[in-house]
């Protein structure tokens, strides 16, 4: 089942909680704080001009970039887990491994090898 439980904000890395609501779809999750921050930038011409063309890592020290790497990996792992949940959802709907593979541009076997859960859906047919 696809769930937001245990997810983190894909932008700031904060875990969702009762106090920090996450909103999202297609793997990315965003907290209300990041939405508010983004809204402030989008609706303030000066802040928008300041942010335009600037990437966070351009002003970060090496130590800050290194410290951010675990958040980047957590977000990537979250998206990988979401892809697995999505494939599980498709399999529950009796979508074949062949169709999943075709959609991903890989063979049925490659899709199965990547997404079949150990102890879960091991069927190679359907």
UniProtKB/TrEMBL annotation:
<dbReference type="GO" id="GO:0051082">
    <property type="term" value="F:unfolded protein binding"/>
</dbReference>
<keyword id="KW-0862">Zinc</keyword>
<dbReference type="Pfam" id="PF06689">
    <property type="entry name" value="zf-C4_ClpX"/>
</dbReference>
<dbReference type="GO" id="GO:0006457">
    <property type="term" value="P:protein folding"/>
</dbReference>
<keyword id="KW-0143">Chaperone</keyword>
<dbReference type="InterPro" id="IPR038366">
    <property type="entry name" value="Znf_CppX_C4_sf"/>
</dbReference>
<dbReference type="GO" id="GO:0008270">
    <property type="term" value="F:zinc ion binding"/>
</dbReference>
<dbReference type="GO" id="GO:0046983">
    <property type="term" value="F:protein dimerization activity"/>
</dbReference>
<comment type="similarity">
    <text>Belongs to the ClpX chaperone family.</text>
</comment>
<dbReference type="InterPro" id="IPR010603">
    <property type="entry name" value="Znf_CppX_C4"/>
</dbReference>
<feature type="binding site">
    <location>
        <position position="12"/>
    </location>
    <ligand>
        <name>Zn(2+)</name>
    </ligand>
</feature>
<feature type="domain" description="ClpX-type ZB">
    <location>
        <begin position="1"/>
        <end position="50"/>
    </location>
</feature>
<feature type="binding site">
    <location>
        <position position="9"/>
    </location>
    <ligand>
        <name>Zn(2+)</name>
    </ligand>
</feature>
<feature type="binding site">
    <location>
        <position position="34"/>
    </location>
    <ligand>
        <name>Zn(2+)</name>
    </ligand>
</feature>
<protein>
    <recommendedName>
        <fullName>ClpX-type ZB domain-containing protein</fullName>
    </recommendedName>
</protein>
<feature type="binding site">
    <location>
        <position position="31"/>
    </location>
    <ligand>
        <name>Zn(2+)</name>
    </ligand>
</feature>
<keyword id="KW-0479">Metal-binding</keyword>
<dbReference type="InterPro" id="IPR059188">
    <property type="entry name" value="Znf_CLPX-like"/>
</dbReference>
């Amino acid at each position: 089942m696809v769930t937001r439980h245990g997810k983190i904000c894909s932008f700031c890395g904060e875990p969702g909680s009762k106090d920090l609501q996450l909103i999202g779809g297609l793997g990315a999750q965003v907290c209300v704080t990041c939405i508010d921050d983004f809204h402030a930038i989008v609706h303030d011409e000066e802040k928008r001009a300041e942010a335009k063309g600037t990437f966070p890592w351009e002003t970060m020290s090496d130590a800050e970039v290194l410290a951010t790497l675990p958040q980047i990996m957590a977000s990537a792992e979250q998206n990988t887990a979401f892809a697995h949940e999505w494939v599980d959802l498709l399999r529950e709907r009796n979508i074949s491994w062949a169709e999943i593979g075709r959609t991903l541009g890989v063979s049925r076997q490659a899709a199965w090898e990547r997404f079949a859960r150990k102890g879960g859906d091991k069927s190679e047919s359907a």
